[in-house]
Amino acid sequence: MIMKDGKDGIAHTYSFCDIYRFAGEGNRSRKSGGRYKDAYPPARCLRIFDASPFKESIGMKIKELMTSDVKSCGLDTNLAAAAKIMWEEDCGAVPVTDESGHVVGVITDRDICIAGATRPNAEGEIPVREVISDALYTCTPGDDARAALETMRRQKVRRLPVVDDGGRLAGIVSIHDLAMHARTGKSADVPAEAVIDAFVAISSATDLRVHV
Question: Considering the entire predicted model, what is its pTM?
């Protein structure tokens, strides 16, 4: 949201997170001793995060929410080709797999934009392997939906590749999928407030200097 001053100049910009915090997160933070302020540290030092405490739950499973027909690309796929997949599939991220179909990373539209703007080579000359993050967070079809949401919240990612027991690509699940499930209100497996908290955590600014 953009707010303009009287001369039609941009005075302030407001995000969903700003509005949400104003609407109530600040009060809860004060009551909980600042829990919301410190609950979402960046954690890209991990290769794979597995929120296993929820695995044995009888709640909604990822296989009931995930997209199974998902396109992937390889490590040597160039960024232009990866962007073409996103355009054709109307998505913002593509899982990256090796020759055996094992998931080794995720390439996002943001990765492509930043690489294209900061490197001298054209997108068609930059392989995916040079851009994707070293961190990879996944879930399995049998994981509880709350486990996936907790992974997204803690690791500040919007999507998780879904892998089988052998680490091969089985699908993908996004915070949008979880939000749509929470919106139905048919079960308490994924409370709407938990989805909002995760979205706020994901959208919060990250100090990239810690990753250098």
Answer: 0.67
Please name every residue paired with 61 in a beta bridge, in sequence order, or none if there are none: 144
Q: Dump pLDDT digits (tens) for 40-91.
A: 233 333 334 444 444 444 578 999 999 999 999 999 999 999 999 999 999 9
| Amino acid type, 39 | A
What domains can be seen in the chain, in order of their start residue?
1-39 (no CATH), 42-211 (3.10.580.10)
Identify residue 7 by its one-letter amino acid code. K
Q: How far apart are CA 32 and CA 171, in angstroms?
A: 37
Query: How is residue 110 written in tokens?
Result: 């943001």
What Cα–Cα distance (Å) separates residue 59 from each residue in 56, 140, 145, 154?
A: 9, 14, 7, 20
Q: Are 145 and 66 in contact (CB under 8 A)?
A: no
